[in-house]
Amino acid sequence: RAQTTPTGGRTVSGTVLSADDNLPVPGVNVLVKGSTAGTITDIDGHYQLPVPSDEATLIFSFIGFISQEVPVGSQSTLDVTMQTDTRQLDEIVVTALGIEREKKALGYAVQEIQGKSLTQARETNVVNSLSGKFAGVQITSSNGAPGSSSRIVIRGASSVGSNNQPLFVVDGIPINNENYGSSTSVDYGNGASSLNPDDIASVSVLKGPSAAALYGSRAANGVILITTKSGKGTQGIGVSVNSTATFEEPFRLPNFQNQYGQGGNLQFAFVDGKGGGVNDGVDESWGPPLDGRLIPQFNSPIDPTTGERIPTPWVAHPDNVKDFYRTGTTFTNNVALTGGNDKANFRLSFTNLAQQGILPNTDYKRNTIALSGGVQLTPKLSAKASVNYVKDGSDNRQNFGLYFIWFGRQVDIHELKEYSPRSDDQVQYNWNYNYWNNPYYALTESTRANQKDRLFGNVMVTYEFTDWLNLFVRTGTDFFGDRRQNRIARMNKSRFSSYSEDVYVAQETNSDFLFSITPKLGGDFEVSANLGGNNRMNEYRRDYMYAAQLAIPGVYNIGNSLLRPEVANSYTKKVVNSLYGSAQLAYRNAIFLELTGRNDWSSTLPAANRSYFYPSASLSAVVTDLIPMSTRVLSFAKVRASIAQVGNDTDPYRLQQILSYEDPWNTNSSVSVSNTINNADLKPEITTGTEVGADIRFFNNRIGLDVTYYNQISRNQILNVNVSQASGFNDKILNAGEIQNKGVEVQLNLTPVKLENSFQWDIGVNFARNRNQVVSLADGLTTYQLGSIRGMSIEARVGQPYGTFFGTPYLRDPDGNIVHVDGIPQLASERAILGNFTPDWLGGFANTFTYKGLTLYTLIDVRHGGDLFSQTVNIGRYTGVLAETVEGRETGIVGEGTMNTGTDENPQYVPNDVRVDGQRYYQTLYGLYNNEANIFDGSFVKLREVRLGYQIPDRVFGKLPFRNVTLSAVGRNLLLLHSNVPHIDPESSYYSSDSNVQGIESGQILSTRSVGFNLNFSL
Amino acid sequence: CTHNFDEINANPNDPVEASADLFLPYGIKSAVDLYWGTGTYSLADVGNLFAQHWARIQYTSSDQYNLSNDIIDNTWRDLYIESLPNLQEVYDLGAENGNPNYQAVAMIMRSWVFSLLTDIYGDIPYTAALEGLEGTLSPTYDAQKDVYAGMVQELKTASDMIVVGGPTVGGDILYGGDMLKWKKFANSLSLRLLNRQLGAPDPVIDVVAEMTRILTNPTQYPVFESVAEHAALNYLNAAPNNNPVNQNRLTRDDHRVSKTLVDQLKSLDDPRLAIYANLPADGGDYTGVPNGLSGSDANALGLTKTSKVGSYFTAATAPAVIMSYAELWFALAEAAHRGVAAAGDAATNYENGIRASFAQYGLTPSDAYLSSVAYQGGEAGYAQILEQKWIALYGQGMEAWTEQRRTGIPDLTPPELNVNNDVIPTRLPYPSSEEALNNAHFHEALDHQEAENNKLFKLWWAN
Hints:
The complex is a heterodimer. Chain A is mainly β.
């Protein structure tokens, strides 16, 4: 914040110290009373401020301290010691409906972080920045593609069928966090991923139904409350600049083998790359040893006289995968302008983000303009508004799947960069013409582009009827249009290129009002109440066009379609009206009771069930305020308890039976009976949560412990339940099912070292253990399939945690050894439970060291339990590209395990002694439909974030206008400290963030390690 | 504040009702697509590989009877939830609007689809099936012989119900609304199903009497009288209505003609080989691929050195034959051989079968050919009928597999690498969805068949 200089004054300077420890206090507001002139203290607690005259009075204020007014008089140096304000120790937090509350008055757990921590070690997707910082919040980044999505789940999955992600609310208005149409081949990001970290002031997480009850239907999974920066409280004009440059590389590459090249049975010779030579159509690496022998290869020169390839040395190119990836870059630049006086304020911010992916020719761009302002029109009437315009998109955000997992290990990747065809029967030059595209060709010529325009914001008018009654009326919208263009270039096999366009338009509009009643009673009791209502409308439109075969290659337009283009369009609309109220009762500012109630009317439910009411109650008591305890040991103690319900509706149009369109046959148009039985009698889902907790601090807050126990039960779930297909239908929508989540969340804050020379060490630990159980499903139903891969189903199974892996294991003898027949490992004929993707516990461990202007921050992120099914490992072992498939290829292998020398009825298991061919052994040991071999414990410990920052003292800049200059070196996803999964990042998800199918890895774009620099200053 | 909620929640995107002619195309096409082979793994693999008409040269695991769950699950799924409910809708709308021809077409198609299901799986939900909207969501299973009796009864009812020249049937992509042809298909299909029961234990109906009913009254129960009348879906030139095998070959090249078939046709000097197989791309004589080789052994034979499935069958417009004229003659030949008097003379029927099969491809058998395969009568003659039937059923892999596992002729050898105890699969296992969602009836069905859910136990008509 810059200072404005009144004319004709002089300058006062000084240092602000804390009475507690006599250490300098940075960041203290210093203001000339009755004017807009002011500054803040620098890192050394030092300030310098022009004053108009000797009569001036300076106001020193800072959160956590008692404000002081000091007359300047004739002094030119004014040192101030500030007293700790014990009353203000409790932060103000933003709770439901944007109501600011003292944290100590809350009967439920709320956790908040400041925006600053999102912008220094930044993530393009703000959701990723929350990882490891909140107890009980699980973040799963889908992949390393620029602009990709992230899944966030709070306190475990509570719904069997619907998406389990929390509601995102920006400045009181819900925004859209859907992941429309993202698929496993391309990730268009989740709605929250286009939020700009530079515009975020704070993020507050409302974890359970208690905290979220007032948000209604969608809050059963918790709420992420985002408050954007505003110009409120600023005096004069300020300019801040934040620039970040980070560089990305693959976080973890598979451990490839480099002893054997492409082919099969140790044989290979290239003729046409599609089976014309010796195993040259094969995209596996079971070929000859890479010992330099001479073999005709895809890039061997052709003898002009014979037309045959001249054999060239068969050698390893160990870095052929690594070299394919490039260093990704992310540049973010933000300039924000704030201004204000007693009557009005504004903030205008512009941010440009330009990202290049680690895959060639992939990128992501985002420009954000945020404008917010507030004005006090009359003493009783004020208004504010904010608008955010985000234009983001990509020229190509294509996934590149399992390419190098089906590969010839000998391929020199550099030879493929020039991909123009070398003969008439090719459309591209490649190492294989049977299955694959040249990877450079695929990423350059086939592209998945999109451009998205998004506008969200709100206007709000507040009127103070009296000093105890005010009303706000607000309306806000989130609107976007996303145009996606998919170009599929010609391949060697299918000689047609194809093209599709997909346009999504979605809008959510919320209009609400709220009366706030805060009568002044005097005495020991204080009461307040809120009464409000909301109208929400969601609209969604999709227009899709697809030309499967283009007439003229390379012209990507639907008009160029050879066939009748495929088209589809749809429109959905939903309205929810709500009325709600809350009442708070405080006794001696130490015991707090809060009651809430909300009634929703949803258009998606049948008339008889569309109105539903749900209440909550919470109680908290600040023990240390009730019973004065002047001990130095216990500085603060609070206990809390709450119980709440949240109701949830369903998607539109699930009540009436419909027909589906089918492709016409010549002029015969065609429809079909829908595979889903809709249900005209649906009821709302109800989640009930109880929680108890305590917040205890010791030794003058040097130790802070916050513990929460919760128990959440979700009933009457609206499920799309599979039914016997012999009924003529695949599934039926019905109310059934119950999921229970109970768990413990612990947050521990410690300041083990705090020295007089300003060195300080802070530790933050969070831990969350969630026990999830699918209690019941529909009548007679014991499993609910969420998805399947390689014959393994991912299920909600009664009695198990959500996300059971049910698939094919090895056949084992009674001692657990793998049974072999003729030396070949066998699979069991019955499928079995093989794992579960729900983790046992999550934790974060943060350390902050500060010394004068220096700050070192580290964050370690832990996940324990939660299985992962890896297709990279699955296929890479089958195709012989991974390191563990080398041993015994030439000598044969005697598999570890047993064989049955008895009969089926009377088995005699003896150690297997049959030696079999290596390729055959590995291809059955690691068969494509052998699920057990590819499931791993997904536990990990990661060094998530390291940040070294230095705030340069303002005095260094003298008369230059730079203030609060902070320079940081930042790193994210730096190290995998522990993992039980080979070859891949254990933290990855193949399916989009909307999907309940988690715990599956399938060659999504590699996650990245990122290091870079951040520069932050104000003028 | 909820006054217009019903309006808001009325689906603006999808229809809620339609006429019968709109349901019929998909009811037919979805079943025929599945039968002929949609997708990478499909019934095209099951029938054509098990019957050793085709072999895999890439991804050979299905040729070693290691089947992906997709084959097992999708077959059940597509027949039960894609085809049958739409045929049921055609039937219901026909009844509602007094159009017996719609009802008859729906019953004939439905019988064919149920016959596929029971021939693939054994006992199946039949009488209690397709009642999801009003009735049960977990239907009971019917014994295979009861299903067979039911289908024959339905086909008779359908044939009796048809009014030639009566109410119009629209959306008929099989016969273009020609009700006489539908009538002939109903009775021909009935003969196929009856023939299948001739050697089966304790059929529910009097099989010989039913055959005699049809064969002695050609006015009331006419059957196919030429190749032109056979039941086949003639695919169109372009996606999505091109032949599914054609669609598969646009991006995949996993199949070759089986060595078993190529060798057999070569030994007979059978001119159909030039239709059934292509010459290898690199030239040379027709070369079949042995079934069930390891991936690398198969690939080592060379994609360009082996015979692809004949271009006739991979063309966009290649017909998917549901029941051929030749097949009818071979069924009658077998019936005659087994002593069904109304079926006429086995030798004549057998030769007519060969002639019909040749005619299907515009060929005429030479006298030399006919004399080289002349009917010998007795056990040898029975084997001849079924061997020629096996050759004639090329393309109709599902039917070829069914006849082979019913009769054991020709005597095929399973590949050395197989995961089915050296037995050519006798059926497909029920899909895992039935075990999960219809558990009690699933177990009842297996108990009734005294079997486990594998590919090893013989179906009723094979005993």
